[in-house]
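Quick illustration for those who missed Monday's session on complexes.
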Amino acid sequence: MLKNQPISHRGGVQRVMYKRWQTKNEKIGSVLIGGGSPIRVQSMTNTDTRNVKSTVRQIKELEKAGCEIVRVAVPDLESARKIREIKSRINIPLVADIHFDYKLALESINQGADKIRINPGNIGSKERVKAVVNAAKKAKIPIRIGVNSGSLKEFHNFSNIKDRAGSLVKAALEHVKILESLNFYDIVVSIKASDVPTTIESYKLFATKRKYPLHLGITESGTLFRGTIKSSVGIGAILNEGLGDTIRVSLTSNPVEEVYVAYQILQALGLRSTGIDLISCPTCSRCKIDIIKVTGEIENALKNVKVSRRYKDKPLKIAVMGCVVNGPGEAKDADLGIAGGNDTGLFFKKGKPIGKVKPKDWVKTMVRMIKSVAR
Ligand code: SF4
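Prediction with iron/sulfur cluster bound:
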């Protein structure tokens, strides 16, 4: 087996040299993951897959937010049979998520799924595993093995297991070996524990064993607020180790939020750019404007602003600061900014003042300036 080793990668925003672990390249539809490709953002629909209309509508929203790969749950044959129709109406690769039932895997592949997620050790007889592997080989699609502490029988007493990361990696390798024994190597792996430290250790350990692309995520991470924190800490720590080829932030929320959070995690580490980075001060008694409200409005407005491809590595930096005393100085790296005053705001460009604007006009003025600078 090939030994894995880290390679250098230059982070886009802070120009930090990351040692990224070299992984095998895999094609999911038209999207490459691993092997030095950009770290891909994916999400999963929470509609009924049998309802093509609502599933396609949600996938379109995800596409608009920047989702690059989408997964749908396939709990029954009727869902599997809708895959071709859903695929024909969307623009990003579609992954079928299957548990146990090899017939659902075969039908999903038959319907044109770009990847399936199924654990070979849970399929049953060797003949069934072979049938799925042969179909995936013929369709030239990868299989993701997803080891998850919450859904595996052997981890029902997970909190009592001493070497949790070791156990999860052992389970992942058992599934991997089944596919390898059938000469199938188009594999993507995820290893998710419900606690962050175990998940981090598991990915680090697995990376020393195999060089298949890694799908990162923190399982059962929670609501938009808690899940964002847990995922940012967990996924961020793993990415900072130079590991990870695609990420899915799991939130008990609208999946579109998962995409926004995923990009912010990648941007914070300088691994991808959303095009715009918005910074704002925490406010203090010097602040005479409702900066919290204004920043929220600007953040919302920016979701619909498209910026030039030249910001794809290093985002345009926008600062919203509470006062003219410290604002421009604290945001001196910003490309554009506002510093609040008494019922006014001083706009600045590259740290230099360019004019005053009434607070009611801040949002539209800032959006207009961003559009003119970032075309
Ligand atoms: S920019 Fe001004 S208002 Fe904001 S935290 Fe700094 S000093 Fe306070």
